[in-house]
């Protein structure tokens, strides 16, 4: 059976874009106040174009990846610039740790939860509130995004994920075969989560940040003035190039996000259970061609679709029969008796794309336009 | 007389912060039925009890003399060695689960079978100078017998929280996955204890 097209007509696309434009306008007004309106318009136009193409062609993964990679690439210039303005260096000074002024990031959320419950303490030296990278602001964003997108966060909202997502599609051929069904691949993400949670309990510090975070190379890190910090720096460089660039290129998989990120593992455990959207397979349409399993970047396709699915859309685009699609908790279509125009428009996949793209926009807008301004000024 | 018991009960959750990261991967990596799990926990607790009784005896014998001698630096060194030993045992146990027939994995299976690991890791957690242990240690001053008895009561108080591990067999539906996760975690924790909390901190020997 041949796949039916998921592409929308121009009026349908325009209706969805009109909904999306509301948060864009909010950010545009904010940007106008800070003198960054031209950059806000450029970024807004860029996002609108990507979303238009996504709806018009019915191809999710390709345009999502362009958005996701640009988000990752635009994150670090603004972040590093802000750090240098604030403390004059990318290195973490002792005073920042003592005064609890380190920027909080979502990857640490699963690590901080148990000590918060057991010891009533936050084991991360970050600001509690009053800053855009404060602990409370990240927790609020995480709760809302998790309720609405689940593990979709990892392919649409996370400002780090674009690194290995982009690299996983550089090579056309798989040079390093990583079997989705191998038990160690299935268990590694949860083991990693358990390890960093338990390990952090012993020292009451986030051992992921201390030793295992590859993103410190493009954000902030400790000065290698002693053996401990030197080893941490070496590990960070190895993990950055190894798990975010080399292994994804060779294996065509998102090695860091799919196997090593504790936040991703937690989203798989919690987010996928509570979020309304999930990828579902219509087994009557499946011809067992294996395309989905072969190309799934997040190791989520085996006999069944695992909870680690990031709703990236790769399998949906590749499936030759349309057996895979985004569903709304068991319903393939909502309002089944509505006219065809609205029935198509309100497909769960379109609603998810709209929600997830808006989520990514909310997260990325501020640093993206800031980075654009910096880059324009640089050249 | 009840003070050690109450101290154990009140500091038990903190105790779990130090014992849990060792005990959880250990029991997850080899999940058993209720009876087997009970026996495994008993072995772990026996090891822990031996550690506590030993500590009670020594502290009771030397009184505050030893505690005074235990400068932060000495405590630090003791912890370092203890972390390295725990790490080594966990690494060996983790390696023993790897499917390789020969080499290091086979040797690890011989040196560190599961029952031995449960006993020895229990002993290691019993001798861990964690804050609840040190809080208890400051209260032992009246001879070796009373020292041992106090530590026995403290053991009872803290061990109640480890009974949570008896719930693991209820998750037998996920046995295969949990065992797999436990085995990988065991290797990772072993490496973390041995290398990051042990070897890398050796620079501190200089004082």
Task: Provide the fold topology.
The complex is a heterodimer of chains A (379) and B (207).
Chain A: H1 10-33, H2 37-57, H3 61-87, H4 94-98, H5 109-119, H6 135-149, H7 153-156, H8 162-167, H9 183-203, H10 207-212, H11 227-251, H12 255-260, H13 262-274, E1 277-281, H14 291-295, H15 314-318, E2 324-328, H16 340-345, H17 348-378
Antiparallel strand pairs in A: 1-2
Helix pairs in contact in A: 1-2, 1-17, 2-3, 2-17, 3-17, 5-9, 6-13, 9-13
Chain B: H1 3-28, H2 34-62, H3 64-69, H4 72-96, H5 104-111, H6 114-126, H7 131-137, H8 144-159, H9 175-196
Helix pairs in contact in B: 1-6, 1-7, 1-8, 1-9, 2-6, 2-8, 4-5, 4-6, 4-9
Low-confidence stretches of chain A: none
Strand fraction of chain B: under 5%
Please describe the biggest sheet of chain B, giving its number of strands, its sense, and whether it closes into a barrel.
none
Shape of chain B: globular
Rg for CA atoms of chain A = 21 Å
Q: What does the main sheet of chain A amount to? A: 2 strands, antiparallel
Spatial sequence of strands, sheet with the most strands of chain A: 1-2
What's the count of strands of chain A?
Answer: 2
Return the domain count of chain B. 1
Biggest interface, and residues per chain? A-B, 24 and 25 residues
Shape summary of chain A:
globular
Counted by DSSP, the helix tally of chain B is 9
Instruction: Provide the structure class of chain A.
Output: mainly alpha
Amount of helix of chain A: 55-70%
Q: What is the count of distinct domains of chain A?
A: 1
Low-pLDDT stretches of chain B are none
Taking all Cα atoms into account, the compactness measure Rg of chain B is 18 Å
């Amino acid at each position: 059976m041949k796949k039916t097209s998921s592409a929308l007509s121009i009026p349908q696309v325009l209706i969805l874009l009109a909904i999306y434009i509301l948060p864009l306008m909010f950010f545009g007004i904010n940007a106008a106040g800070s003198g960054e309106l031209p950059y806000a318009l450029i970024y807004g136009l860029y996002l609108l174009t990507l979303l238009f193409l996504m709806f018009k062609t019915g191809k999710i993964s390709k345009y999502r990846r362009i958005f996701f990679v640009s988000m990752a690439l635009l994150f670090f210039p603004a972040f590093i610039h802000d750090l240098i303005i604030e403390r004059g260096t990318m290195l973490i000074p002792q005073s920042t740790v003592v005064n609890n002024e380190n920027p909080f990031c979502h990857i640490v959320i699963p690590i901080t939860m148990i000590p918060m419950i057991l010891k009533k303490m936050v084991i991360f030296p970050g600001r509690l509130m009053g800053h855009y990278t404060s602990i409370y602001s990240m927790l609020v964003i995480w709760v809302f995004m998790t309720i609405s997108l689940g593990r979709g966060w990892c392919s649409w909202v996370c400002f780090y994920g674009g690194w290995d997502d982009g690299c996983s599609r550089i090579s056309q051929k798989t040079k390093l075969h990583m079997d989705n069904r191998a038990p160690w691949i299935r268990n590694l993400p949860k083991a990693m989560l358990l390890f960093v949670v338990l390990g952090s309990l012993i020292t009451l510090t986030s051992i992921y940040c201390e030793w295992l975070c590859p993103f410190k190379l493009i954000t902030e890190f400790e000065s290698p003035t002693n053996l401990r910090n030197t080893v941490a720096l070496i590990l960070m460089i190895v993990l950055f190039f190894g798990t975010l660039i080399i292994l994804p290129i060779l294996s065509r998989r998102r090695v860091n996000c799919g196997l090593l990120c504790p936040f991703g593992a937690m989203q798989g455990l919690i987010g996928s259970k509570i979020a309304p959207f999930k990828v579902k397979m219509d087994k009557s349409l499946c011809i067992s061609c294996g395309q989905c399993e072969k190309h799934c970047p997040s190791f989520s396709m085996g006999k069944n679709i695992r909870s680690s699915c990031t709703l990236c859309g790769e399998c949906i685009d590749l499936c030759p029969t349309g057996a895979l699609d985004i569903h709304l908790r068991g319903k393939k279509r909502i309002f089944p008796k509505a006219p065809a125009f609205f029935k198509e428009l309100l497909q769960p996949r379109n609603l998810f794309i709209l929600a997830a793209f808006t989520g990514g926009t909310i997260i990325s807008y501020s640093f993206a336009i800031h980075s654009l301004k910096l880059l324009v000024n640089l050249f | 007389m009840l003070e050690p018991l109450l101290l154990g009960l009140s500091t038990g959750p903190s105790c779990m912060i130090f014992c849990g990261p060792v005990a959880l991967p250990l029991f997850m990596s080899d999940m058993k039925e209720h009876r087997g799990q009970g026996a495994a926990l008993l072995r772990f607790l026996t090891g822990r009890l031996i550690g506590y009784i030993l500590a009670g005896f020594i502290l009771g014998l030397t009184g505050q003399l030893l505690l005074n001698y235990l400068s932060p630096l000495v405590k630090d060194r003791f912890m370092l060695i203890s972390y390295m030993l725990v790490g080594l045992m966990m690494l060996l146990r983790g390696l023993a689960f790897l499917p390789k027939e020969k080499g290091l994995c086979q040797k690890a299976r011989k040196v560190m079978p599961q029952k031995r690991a449960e006993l020895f890791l229990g002993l290691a957690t019993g001798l861990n100078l964690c804050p609840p242990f040190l809080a208890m240690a400051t209260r032992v001053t009246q001879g070796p017998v009373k020292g041992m008895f106090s530590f026995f009561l403290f053991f009872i108080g803290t061990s109640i929280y480890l009974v949570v591990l008896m719930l693991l067999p209820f998750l037998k539906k996920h046995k295969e996955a949990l065992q797999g996760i436990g085995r990988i975690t065991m290797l990772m924790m072993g490496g973390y204890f041995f290398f990051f909390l042990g070897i890398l901190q050796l620079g501190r020997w200089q004082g």
